[in-house]
Amino acid sequence: MSSAFNYHRAASVDDALAVLGQHEDAALLAGGHSLIPSLKLRLAAPGTLVDIGHLDELNYIRQQGGGVAIGAATTHHDVATSTVVAGQAPLLAQAAAVIGDPQVRNMGTIGGSLAHADPAADYPAAVLASGAHIVARGPGGERVIEAGDFFVDLFLTGLQPGEIITEVRVPAQPPGSGACYAKFPHPASRFAVVGCAAVVAANAGVCTDVRVAFTGVANAAFRDAGVEGALGGQPLTGAGIDAASAVAAQGVEVLSDAFAGADYRRHLATVFAGRALRSAARL
Amino acid sequence: MSVSINVTVNGRGYQEEVEPRLLLADFLRDVLGLTGTHVGCDTSGCGACTIIVDGKAVKSCTLLAVQADGADLTTIEGLASNGALHPLQEGFHEEHGLQCGFCTPGMIMAAWQLLERNPNPSDAEIRHALEGNFCRCTGYENIVKSVRAAAGSAA
Amino acid sequence: MAKYIGQAVKRVEDRRFITGKGRYTDDIKLPGMTYAAIVRSPHAHATINAIDTSRALAADGVVTAFVGQDLADAGVGGLPCGWQVDFKNGDTMKEPPHPVLAVGKVRHVGDPVVIVIAETRDQAQDAAELVEVDYGILPAAVDTVASAGEGAPLVHDDVPRNVPFDWGLGDADAAAAALDSAAHVTTLEITNQRLVANAIEPRCAIGDYDSARDHYTLYTSSQNPHVIRLLMTAFVLGLPEHKVRVVSPDVGGGFGSKIFHYAEEVLAIWCSRQIERPVKWTAQRSESFISDAQGRDHVTKAELGLDADGNFTGLRVTTHANVGAYLSTFSTCVPTYLYGTLLQGLYTTPAIYVDVTAVFTNTVPVDALRGAGRPEATYLLERLVDTAAHELGLDPGELRRRNFIPPFDGVEQPGYQTQVALQYDSGNYAGVLDKALEMVGYDDFREEQAAARAEGRYLGIGFSTYIEACGIAPSAVVGSLGARAGLFESAVVRVQPTGKVSVFVGSHSHGQGHETTFSQVVADQLGIPIEDVDIIHGDTDQVPFGMGTYGSRSLAVGGSAIVRSLDKVKEKGAKIAAHLLEASEDDLEYAGGKWTVRGTDKSIGFGDVALTAYVPHNYPEGLEPGLDFTSFYDPANFTFPFGAHLCIVEVCADTGKVTLKRFVAVDDVGNVINPQIVEGQVHGGVCHGIGQALLEGAIYDGDGQLVNGSYMDYAMPRADDLPALELGRTVTPCPHNPLGAKGAGEAGTIGATPAVVNAAVDALWHVGVRDLPMPLTPQTVWQAIQQAGS
Q1: What are phi and psi of A227, to 5 degrees?
Q2: What's the total number of domains in chain C?
Q3: What is the per-residue pLDDT across A14-43, written as a single tens digit (0 to 9) for each?
Q4: Domain range holding C703?
Q5: pLDDT tens for each residue of B47-85
Q6: CB spacing of B126 vs C719 below 8 angstroms
Q7: pLDDT over 90 percentage in chain B
Q8: Alpha-carbon torsion angle B136, B141, B147, B151, nearest 10
Q9: So what's the pLDDT on residue C546?
Q10: I need a labelling partner for B124 at 20 to 30 A (CA). Which of A233, B17, C13, C501 fits?
């Protein structure tokens, strides 16, 4: 189906980095659920695949500080069903649970999904709203990338050539906060037409912290400063959420396709912002 | 460049030399002659190729055979034991959960995963768990009944 | 005495499928087999200026490659159309060539241009990528209506306005007069969108030429192997038919798309002859999207006239039917004889006229898809009726009841002669509606709907009362209408010496459960255990002839052929039994698997008679040995299943998403042999119909590119898109075939689609929505709500 390529089963992350360094046309293979479909349709033709999907050093979920650290090769299923993630990083658990279908969740990995940066993938919104960091290792060593700096454009991330995502770190969420990932799936692909991740914290009925991020809406997932600004510091009420949601995706160049044109997609962003925020605020 | 892989399929060990680009589904069908696993699409959408790899239902059209090196695989051919049909196979037969039969192996394997994780699913949970599998014949109605019947008989 | 008929006998074919032992075409591997990849046009409309296969031929593992001119030089003909529909003015149908590989010009994205054959599938695909084709891109005709207008690019240079034929049926003057004098006219502009069949098994063909015997075998994922053999040998390749065997093994769904004769079948056989090795081609799904014939694609204006009492007085329908780039095998009869003839519906409308213009476009050819013409007819009729009810403030059930054809059984009361050529066989149309309304709890629903509206929620119920013509078809009738084939069916009943029975049927089973249903008929008619019956199909070397499986015809026509042969078996068996029992044939009765001399305990079993037929030591004088009969059954009429479908939906005001809450289907398919199989057929059909209403639709852009040609883009129903289906049944036997069966394969599809759309419109009528285009995607519905509110 695909063009021919060489295969290297990496013995370690360091080994994978070395092979990546040697072959300019090498590509990383983790779960393969973004890469293999494009290989089959001959949309991608790497010379060498470096398989890191089986590496134990990339497959873990650990409590870390008040938050959680997730190895890059952890599958969506493992993230979705982890009690640690559910407790410490509920947005990631919720997003992971609605990716693709059960078989896809059994194979697809968090690192693979983030590195692919599909504009309609579920994780990016959750990672952004969680205030997570993406840990990457490359020829120059390890660095930690803020989620806000990671999603650059359509299928384009802040990763440098030769870098491998090794971990996603989700910090402790604000005390008493709630979170919700609300998604409108495409009926064929099950990708997000619009996905909204929201974290809300309140004190004495006033919104003390709010983070809202969208996927599916634009070329890259993004935090919506307009919604956040409209709700932060305001009374956390249904009316307040509706008013804040109404400004969702303003000033953003909204994607448009046969299933959802830009106007409709922008409208969906307001609807799903409202749903995510209401649920996060337990209203 | 061929790569040597070792896999266990339905309890039997195989060592084969494969091209890296060979998909696991094609390995099963063309190399091992296990044609019960079907391929219905090229975008990981239809689920007809679903098999069990190390206890997990996966779409074998979206794995390279080399990725399965060292793995334990179960395909539809390996589901019955000692001639006795698996409760899911019985369920699909009793409840008319198949018509043309093409999606059936993948559907049964996806349902196997569901029951392994949730032995007593509701109808809604069954429908949700089968969202990665297309059937064009049955309207899913009797597939849901089949899985429910299998869950009941296994309980 | 029915032991099996009417029972939910578990399917005998299941075991191979649930254990992974089914044998589909792509499962077949022959010694020395080669693999083909096809280079297809990436453009909707272009000249082929040059083709360079040299790099492909030099690639690893490549055996050979052929272009269209190679086939033309060898005298390979084009793919034929099986039904001639001439213009209204008598001019002959325009039937431009449909080459197996394009010559000079490509006419749709996916049009095959080059075939590359290699030792492995990957090598064939690698090499196909190296073929260079120099195209001269031309403007494309894409839009169904605009392509028949002035100035549209011509798909075929010698077909003016891209119209291969036009067609009319009914009384145009009477319909016009009725509409002119009607108290109320309901008008709808309807697009019945293009669908992709998407059988989950991609098409596959293997050609195997045996030079030792100068004999060809084609394995193909086809719904009708005999017709493929006939068309391929007689019209395309000019091969001696008796030297060609066509086998359709297990086939993974068809839904119409595997009826037709395809280029790849010809290529597999012809190429195998050239290289004297087997050649296999298997479609990738992305290839299926641009090479399997697609369905529907009508643009219609429909007008229904009513008098002041709500009686239908006239119907006028004007349709443009997109046939794609070439005339596929049955493309011409679908938007005509399978469409216009169904516009009577269940109603007594006295004046009907339908006018159809077929249109070539630079898109994939369009042909039959589950229902084939009948869904298009039913959709517009049932949308008209529900719309008229809304416009007149009448209950949609009441409006239907006023206009239903009264019950008739086709025996005591004659069949019903429609205004559009058909004569319905039997029906009780109010019966199915009453039952469906009772099942759904209609009055309660209307209260629930009113309460929901008060809360700002949009609930709606949609009606659909449909009829379809199945059991296709009386050969003389269809022959007079332009069919280039008969539409009978054949069956051989071969009683083996031990009394076991092999039945060879022309109907092909690809999910319909023939091996079970037919076995039930045979076992009951002969009074033998069902385990003693074997059904063989799908092989032209085994089965005398078959017209195939489509149009819900297998039981009504194929099953009737079996009954004919069984009658002959019993007739001859009685002669042998009478001889052995030393009694008169007239004194014998056959029951429970034995012949008994009436009023005595003298009897002889079926097995003993069978053995005697093959060991004729003590045997009637002058009677031939053997117990083996062939019958061909040509039906006296179509059969006319009917039903009432009711759908309840909720429309989300925020997103426009339509959610199915309930679906009630009451179908009357005549006598039922296996209720579980019939229910399965209805489930699948309803799901298909729901898919058209809510999810499915091929989208071509202005350049003729299929925008949603993959499962990532083309939406189809999944398990969690559907509610549990609630089925009911009434039984009005077909009066003219021996089983009283009408057919069940398409009923669900035909009935379901308008029920869903009517429900969504009902949910939104009060906010001002009057019509919704299919599929009812959330965006479509949301926009309609916005527009209605503004």
Answers
A1: -65, -45
A2: 3
A3: 999 999 999 999 999 999 999 999 999 888
A4: 295-472+637-789
A5: 999 999 999 999 999 999 999 999 999 999 999 988 899
A6: yes
A7: 95
A8: 170
A9: 84
A10: C13
Farthest-apart Cα atoms in chain B, separation = 49
Angstrom distance (rounded) from CA C448 to CA C451: 5
| d(C-alpha C320, C-alpha C322), whole Å | 6
How many angstroms separate the Cα of C766 from the Cα of each of C390, C393, C447, C761?
A: 10, 12, 15, 9
Q: Are residues A210 and A158 in the same domain?
A: no
- Phi, then psi, of C324 in degrees rounded to 5: 75, -155
Number of C-alpha atoms within 13 angstroms, CB side, residue C129? 15
User: Residue B79 has what pLDDT?
Assistant: 96
Amino acid at C96: P
3-state class (DSSP) for residue C756: helix
Residue range C675-709, pLDDT digits in tens: 999 999 999 999 999 999 999 999 999 999 999 99
Phi, psi of C559 (to 5 degrees): -65, -35
Please determine, for residue A175, whether its predicted confidence score (pLDDT) is greater than 90. no
Give the tens place of pLDDT for each residue, C384-442: 999 999 999 999 999 999 999 999 999 999 999 999 999 999 999 999 999 999 999 99
Indicate whether C355 belongs to any domain. Answer: yes
Q: Grade residue C548 by pLDDT with cuts at 50, 70 and 90.
A: confident
Distance from CA of C218 to the nearest CA of A (A): 24
How many CB atoms are located within 10 Å of the residue C219 CB?
29
Domain assignment present for residue A149? The answer is: yes
Cβ atoms of C3 and C523 closer than 8 Å: yes
- Residue C731: what pLDDT? 96
The reported pLDDT for the residue numbered C1 is: 56
Q: Domain containing A34 — which CATH number?
A: 3.30.43.10
What domains appear along chain B, each with residue ranges and CATH number?
3-78 (3.10.20.30), 87-154 (1.10.150.120)
A239: domain range?
178-280
Q: Is the ipTM of this structure higher than 0.90?
A: yes
Contacts of A188 in chain C (CB under 8 A): 695, 708, 711-716
* Helices and strands in chain B: count of H runs, count of E runs: 5, 5
Q: Of C580, C604, C633, which residue sits at a domain end?
A: C633
Does C89 share its domain with C225?
A: yes
Q: Which residues of A touch C125 (CB under 8 A)?
A: 1
Assign 3-class secondary structure to B49-117.
CEEEECCEEEEHHHCEHHHHCCCEEECHHHCCECCECCHHHHHHHHCCCCCCCCCHHHHHHHHHHHHHH
Could you tell me if C84 and C223 lie in one domain?
yes
Whether A117 maps to a domain, the answer reads: yes
Burial C98-117 (b: 16+ CB within 10 A, else e): bbbbbbebbbbbbbbbbbbb
Contact B20 A5 (CB under 8 A): yes
Q: What share of chain B is helix, strand, coil (3-state, %, to 5)?
A: 40, 20, 40
Residue among B19, B86, B96 with most chain C CBs within 10 A, to mutate: B96
Nearest to C472 by CA among C485, C458, C463: C485
CA distance A209 to chain C (A): 27
Chain B residues with CB within 8 Å of chain A CB: 1, 3, 19-21, 23, 26, 42-45, 47, 50, 56-59, 61-64, 66-67, 69, 110, 113-114, 129, 131-133
